[in-house]
């Protein structure tokens, strides 16, 4: 009897949850004014779009090589700067190093603020400050990488084995020596893995920074879309896809070697 009541209760609970989800979906459609019927009414426009989009302009590839190389250089330089800045901040963000809860909380609060700013908003702010160009893209990627990697790094430090730290402290090592010889050797493999992961993420993210003038191949993609040149848009997307696939493959192989 109790088993049957439990089964009925779980069934009612799932039905109620499903009803709530459906109600939320209906209210979301109503509040946003989403009209899915337009997908069918604009089918002719979709056909015209894909008829051009599925015919990539291969003759445009030579003009894309230099912007693509600039995008990769932006990603690499921004990643290096961001990781270099993240390393000391990640150390100060953990009580394992500082042994001061308030200092760590302040640093973590700052890192949290940085992570809440979206990439495109960062790029737009730097465009207003620095101007249009690859330098803006590098700064945007560096700040984004700093916020992301510092979070991963200090979390890795918080989980290390404390025995080497206690041993170093027992023989009279100072903070710097403890950090270099007892803490960093335990997490350098993870740090290297996070660096390559950040580069992998940044290559994908940097392709859309051109929409706000942050340089790279995204500028050409934005211009091609604005001119309704869908054949070139298709070719740019294919080239970006191949580049990201190669970077992902290489990054994954390197990261596995560190784990």
Automatic annotation (TrEMBL):
Pfam families: BPD_transp_1. NCBIfam families: PhnE. InterPro entries: MetI-like, MetI-like_sf, PhnE/PtxC. GO terms for molecular function: ABC-type phosphonate transporter activity. One of its GO terms (cellular component) is plasma membrane. Residues 68-251 form the ABC transmembrane type-1 domain. This is Phosphonate ABC transporter, permease PhnE. It is a multi-pass membrane protein. Keywords: Cell membrane, Membrane, Transmembrane, Transmembrane helix, Transport. Belongs to the binding-protein-dependent transport system permease family. It is found in: Cell membrane. Signal peptide: none annotated. PANTHER family: ABC TRANSPORT SYSTEM PERMEASE PROTEIN P69, PHOSPHONATES TRANSPORT SYSTEM PERMEASE PROTEIN. The chain crosses the membrane at residues 76-98, 176-196, 208-227, 233-251. Gene3D superfamilies: MetI-like (1.10.3720.10).
């Amino acid at each position: 009897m109790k088993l049957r009541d439990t089964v009925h209760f779980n069934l009612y609970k799932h039905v109620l949850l499903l009803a709530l989800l459906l109600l939320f979906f209906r209210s979301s459609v109503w509040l946003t004014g989403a009209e899915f019927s337009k997908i069918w009414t604009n089918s002719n426009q979709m056909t015209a779009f894909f008829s051009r989009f599925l015919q990539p302009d291969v003759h445009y590839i030579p003009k894309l090589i230099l912007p693509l190389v600039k995008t990769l250089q932006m990603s690499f330089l921004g990643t290096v700067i961001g990781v270099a800045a993240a390393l000391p901040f990640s150390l100060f963000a953990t009580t394992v190093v500082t042994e001061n809860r308030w200092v760590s909380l302040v640093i973590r609060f700052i890192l949290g603020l940085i992570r809440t700013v979206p990439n495109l908003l960062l790029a737009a702010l730097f465009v207003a400050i620095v101007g249009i160009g690859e330098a803006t893209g590098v700064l945007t990627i560096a700040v984004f990488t700093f916020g992301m990697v510092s979070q991963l790094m200090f979390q890795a430090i918080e989980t290390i084995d404390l025995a080497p730290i206690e041993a170093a402290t027992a023989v009279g090592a100072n903070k710097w020596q403890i950090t270099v010889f007892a803490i960093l050797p335990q997490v350098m493999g993870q740090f290297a893995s996070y660096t390559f992961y950040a580069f992998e993420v940044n290559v994908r993210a940097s392709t859309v920074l051109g929409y706000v003038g942050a340089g790279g191949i995204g500028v050409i993609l934005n211009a091609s879309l604005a001119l309704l040149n869908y054949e070139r848009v298709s070719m740019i997307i294919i080239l970006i896809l191949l580049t990201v696939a190669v970077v992902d493959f290489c990054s994954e192989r390197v990261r596995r070697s560190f784990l």
